[in-house]
Specification:
Layout (H helix, E strand, L loop, with lengths): L3 E2 L2 E2 L2 E2 L6 H16 L3 H17 L16 H5 L11 H6 L18 H13 L5 H12 L2 H17 L6 E2 L10 E2 L6 E2 L5 E2 L3 E4 L5 E3 L4 E9 L3 E8 L3 E11 L8 E2 L4 E5 L16 E9 L4 E4 L2 H18 L1
Antiparallel strand pairs: 1-4, 2-3, 5-8, 6-7, 8-15, 9-14, 10-11, 10-13, 11-12, 12-14, 12-15, 15-16
Helix pairs in contact: 1-2, 1-5, 2-7, 6-7
């Protein structure tokens, strides 16, 4: 199984400090120690918010190790006239989330320890078991989609016990006879006027289709446009869409955790009709990528990612001789 390492948001690579994972894990484990809430809940919340902040213009960019952002009115308290209050006592009087986590006497919303302990205390007021934490997340975000995305990350982090899950794989084996070009945004006629939200990789029937990331199978089944298709959500709030499949891997199921390179199905020509319709176009894999920003989800061009993963795999194979 090949894995290509990359960090991307909308086609742009983001450099990572080699020590950032250790810094974050230390903060999560400190929060776990004081709250008895497993570290992977804090990791999932942090990872969700970090990626939301990367694609939103209405939120400040993260400056520390954590990506969690607590708005001033929630930090200081909804009735607190001083929205930038850093006094732990007055904040507590107004029901704010802010607290002094590092013992310096200041409740600083830009201090990683203060922020992680504020989140820990908030969650702890609901309880430490999964169902109560799920309720806490709903009350905090007021969006079921957000809760699902965070809990999906919880499953992934819990299984792999590491934060370093940014690896990717090209969706088809390189030894297969395939071809593709950038067609994202092109017009499509079947089913009404719409644009092509992905890249078509043409290959023979039955060529294995592989998961491109660590993620959770969010969707499996039939769609009149995409035919037999699979949707996988990764830890970066990105939805990876595989369509027109000939069939699924025998053990694939919704809710399953997948890894880069894991076979999830095979190339086909299904779709453009009721369940079972196939053969209306040459066999190919439609691969799409969608980003969730906390409000909605939109398609972005997967072509640069595919080229990068393909190139990385070729280089690795060449190095191996």
């Amino acid at each position: 199984m090949f894995i290509a390492t990359s960090w991307n948001v909308l086609g742009k690579e983001i450099a990572k400090d080699e020590n950032i994972y250790e810094q974050r894990m230390e903060l999560y484990q400190k929060a776990e120690a004081v709250s008895l809430i497993p570290w992977y809940y804090f990791a999932a919340i942090d990872q969700y918010e970090r990626n939301v902040r990367l694609v939103r213009r209405d939120l400040p960019k993260a400056t520390g190790a954590l990506g969690i952002y607590i708005p001033p009115e929630r930090w200081a308290g909804p009735l607190n006239r001083n929205k930038h209050d850093t006094n732990p006592f007055t904040i507590s009087q107004f029901g704010g989330l802010g607290m002094d986590g590092n013992g310096d006497g200041v409740a600083n919303p830009n201090d990683d320890e203060d922020v992680i302990f504020a989140i820990a205390r908030y969650l702890q007021t609901y309880g430490t078991d999964h169902e109560h934490l799920k309720i806490a997340l709903w009350d905090y975000y007021q969006r079921s989609k957000t809760v699902d995305l965070i809990l999906g990350k919880v499953k992934i982090y819990k299984k792999y016990k590491t934060l370093q899950l940014d690896d990717h794989a090209f969706p088809l084996p390189l030894h297969a006879n395939y071809t593709y070009k950038n067609t994202w945004g092109d017009a499509r006629g079947w089913g009404g006027r719409r644009i092509h939200e992905g890249t078509d990789i043409f290959a023979h029937y039955g060529v294995p289709v592989r998961a491109t990331c660590y993620g959770v199978v969010e969707l499996k089944g039939w769609n009149k446009y995409g035919g037999w298709r699979v949707g996988i959500r990764d830890i970066n709030n990105t939805y990876h869409y595989f369509a027109h499949l000939n069939g699924f891997a025998s053990n694939l199921r919704e809710g399953q955790i997948v890894e880069p390179g894991m076979i999830i199905g095979s190339v086909g020509s299904s779709g453009y009709g009721p369940p079972g319709t196939a053969g209306k176009f040459p066999p190919h894999l439609h691969y799409g990528m969608y980003k969730d920003n906390g409000y909605t989800e939109w398609s972005f061009d997967p072509y640069p990612h595919l080229k990068m993963w393909e190139r990385a795999e070729k280089m690795q194979k060449k190095q191996r001789g």
